[in-house]
């Protein structure tokens, strides 16, 4: 390898290693509307990687009728990915917009209909049961509504959870659970859907997803100078 080529590789490696630290707000154009987005502290948007693998993963987390605007993973997972290792993907975030509404201004009626559709699909509210026992009820892999986190004219947020289906038939295998919040935001005449995902290991994960969802939505509104 020539000295010039070696220098280029060193520079590229340094840039990739520093990528999480350089992460910051960016703007997406939805027709003629510009929306500022950012990921929470400790997480970085993955668009700069240009990785088809990462893009496919992001698209698998939402409906094909949505356009992915941001897919953020933890800084630690990003370093693993850049080093050629498999990320854990224990926690991640996503921002999408419905493709059918992307090129038109969304009015209150359209946004209300979108909210109604999402809430209808989420199903009935959780009964007064222990969380794990509730998620253990079959069928596994079926998202269950756990709580409504926020409801205003511009923001509606819910929390769901599921027990991850196991391909093994080992009775001694420890069950795994996932929590995720879904937040619909009516912002500058556009409809955004934010989701936060975390594996559920203990009560701290429930506290984390509630706090992170609330903080991220407030940061998004503040970034775009919108009402909280």
Share of β-strand residues: 25-35%
Helix content: 25-40%
What is the CATH topology?
Answer: Protein Transport Mog1p, Chain A
CATH architecture: 3-Layer(aba) Sandwich
Q: Would you tell me the overall average pLDDT? A: 88
Domain count: 1
**Name of the CATH first level:** Alpha Beta
Task: Summarize the helix and strand pattern as letters.
Answer: HEEEHEHEHHEEEEH
Q: In angstroms, what separates the terminal alpha carbons?
A: 55 Å
Given helix and strand content, the structural type is alpha+beta
**Rg, please?**
19 Å
Tally the beta strands.
9
Strand count, sense and barrel status of the largest sheet are: 7 strands, antiparallel
How is the largest sheet built, in terms of strand order?
A: 3-4-5-9-8-7-6
Low-confidence stretches: 1-22
Q: Outline, from the CA principal axes?
A: globular
Enumerate how many helices there are, as a single number: 6
Structure commentary:
This protein is of the alpha+beta class and 228 residues long. It has one domain: Protein Transport Mog1p, Chain A, CATH 3.40.1000. 35% of the residues lie in helices and 30% in strands. The chain contains six helices and nine strands; from the N terminus they run H-E-E-E-H-E-H-E-H-H-E-E-E-E-H. Strands 3-4-5-9-8-7-6 form a seven-stranded antiparallel sheet, sandwiched between helices. A two-stranded antiparallel ribbon has the order 1-2. The radius of gyration is 19 Å and the shape is globular. Mean pLDDT is 88; it is low at 1-22.
């Amino acid at each position: 390898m020539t000295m010039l080529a070696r220098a280029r590789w060193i520079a590229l490696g340094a840039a990739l290693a520093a990528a999480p630290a350089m992460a910051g707000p960016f703007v997406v154009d939805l027709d003629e509307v510009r929306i500022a987005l950012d990921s929470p502290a400790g997480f970085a948007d993955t668009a700069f990687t240009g990785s088809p693998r990462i893009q496919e993963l992001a698209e698998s987390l939402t409906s094909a009728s949505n356009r992915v605007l941001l897919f953020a993973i933890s800084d630690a997972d990003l370093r693993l990915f850049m080093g050629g290792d498999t990320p854990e993907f224990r926690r991640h975030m996503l921002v999408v917009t419905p493709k059918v509404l992307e090129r038109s201004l969304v009015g209150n009626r359209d946004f209300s209909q979108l909210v109604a559709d999402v809430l209808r699909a989420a199903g009935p509210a959780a009964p007064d049961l222990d969380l794990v026992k509730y998620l253990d009820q079959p069928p596994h892999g079926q998202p269950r509504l756990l709580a409504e986190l926020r409801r205003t004219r511009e923001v509606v947020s819910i929390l769901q959870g599921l027990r991850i289906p196991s391909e093994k038939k080992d009775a001694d295998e420890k069950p795994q659970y996932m929590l995720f919040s879904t937040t619909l935001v009516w912002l500058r005449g556009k409809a955004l859907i934010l989701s936060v995902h975390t594996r559920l290991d203990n009560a701290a994960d429930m506290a984390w997803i509630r706090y992170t969802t609330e903080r991220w939505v407030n940061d998004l509104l503040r970034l775009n100078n919108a009402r909280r």
